[in-house]
Design a protein that fits this description.
Layout lengths: L31 E9 L5 E9 L9 E11 L6 H7 L1 E2 L3 E5 L3 H14 L8 E5 L14 H10 L17 E2 L2 E2 L1 E11 L2 E12 L13 H4 L20 E8 L5 H9 L1 H7 L9 E13 L18 H21 L3 E2 L5 E2 L4 H10 L4
Parallel strand pairs: 5-6, 11-12
Antiparallel strand pairs: 1-2, 2-5, 3-4, 3-12, 7-8, 9-10, 10-11, 13-14
Helix pairs in contact: 2-3, 6-7
Length: 359
């Protein structure tokens, strides 16, 4: 699938830190992303999929990574977090999918590790709700779809929008989905990359902000119709998963501190965390190597806490731009019962930014 226009392709830049060469989570060395997108209309309507984030070129189960997570609002699920918190280590790939298919994706990742001779690894699988467009109880995602995403995980440019786990998502009452971005942070000990990938399914139209501009108020329902809520959606349901990666040498508690800064990117784009939202953020670092069967104690490094501010800024900017890239790349989609979620119109976005002097 060819990638769609991104925020910067429209001439809109946010933040003050430079991006990596791909402006993606894959700018962090070794990080790979794979998608499987599941779309069909019979016998039931499928608008769903799975996205895989692989932390290293080789199997993570052979070279663990330090990680930490933060739950901004917990009406959602991400498996494997108890062991991640206990050990401070991520020992598997990360998968993002829809609410109804967490179990299938989890089983597939366990099977992938056991087939490799490693035994169950308590994999991390996160979800957001795609039941507006997708007939979730049909359980469309299969183990084979997960294996495809694993096999296709690669570095370089990342396809965004209506792909993988983000296929059926909506964001600020526009079509949402997968988005990614990166930043280069300069510290006294050198430069490090912070990359983010989001599965954006959060927010209401009126609250959407782009570089401080009230875009959601300017592009109201009289311009682009809202996605009318289904009978099962009595209150705003708005969730986002954000995965942060870096090559800075951090310890687990510092990874958690980095994950917390995803809330800043979320707030800058206009979300504040509804009661019914699952806003769960995870950060990991490839800056240390942790061999599970080492013959001697591991030697690890950490940046002093006093040097983390540039990384915190990088995380906030990367998450903010990831959300906006998801909105820009997503396309209008119609799903079950003829429900339609309209894309954010690029021409209207550019017009609003010019009106406020941001272009």
């Amino acid at each position: 699938m060819a990638n769609k226009p991104r925020l910067r392709d429209l001439g809109i830049s946010i933040g003050r830190l430079p991006t990596g060469p791909y402006n993606a989570i894959t700018d962090v060395p070794g990080v790979r992303v794979g998608h499987t997108t599941v779309i069909f209309d019979t016998p039931k309507v499928a608008r769903t999929g799975v996205t895989i984030i692989a932390p290293r070129e080789g199997p993570t189960r052979e070279d663990h990574v330090f990680a930490g997570y933060y739950s901004f609002n917990g009406c959602g699920a991400m498996t494997g977090l108890l062991w991640l918190e206990e050990s401070g280590q991520l020992i598997s790939e990360i998968a993002l999918t829809g609410t109804y298919t967490v179990g299938t994706v989890y089983d597939a990742l366990v099977q992938a590790t056991t087939d490799g001779g490693y035994g169950s690894q308590l994999p991390v699988v996160g979800e957001t709700y795609d039941g507006f467009l997708n007939q979730g109880p049909a359980f469309h995602v299969t183990r084979e779809h997960v294996f495809q995403a694993l096999a296709g995980a690669a570095g370089g440019p990342v396809v965004e929008g209506n792909v993988g786990g983000g296929t059926g998502m909506k964001c600020h009452d526009f079509k949402g989905g997968i988005g990614t971005s990166s930043r280069i942070a300069t510290t006294p000990f050198g430069q490090y990359t912070v990359g983010a990938l989001v599965q954006a399914n959060q927010g209401e139209r009126i609250d959407l902000m782009v570089a401080g501009v009230p875009v959601g108020q300017e592009i109201g329902p009289e311009v682009v119709p809202l996605a009318q809520r289904g009978p099962e959606e009595h209150e705003p349901q708005s969730s986002i998963l954000a995965i942060l990666a870096t090559d800075a040498p951090l310890l687990p508690f510092q990874c958690k501190r980095l994950a917390q800064r995803a809330t800043i990117g979320l707030a800058r784009s206009g979300s504040y965390g509804h009661n019914w939202s699952g806003d769960i953020f995870l950060a990991f670092t490839v800056g240390n190597h942790l061999w599970p069967y080492a013959s001697a104690p591991d030697c690890v490094q950490m940046l002093p806490n006093e040097q983390l501010d540039p990384l915190f800024l990088a995380a906030a900017e990367a998450v903010e731009e990831s959300i906006l890239n998801a909105l820009c790349a997503a396309e209008t989609m119609t799903g079950q019962q003829g429900r339609t979620i309209h894309a954010l119109p690029h021409d209207a976005l550019v017009s609003v930014m010019r009106k406020y002097g941001r272009l």
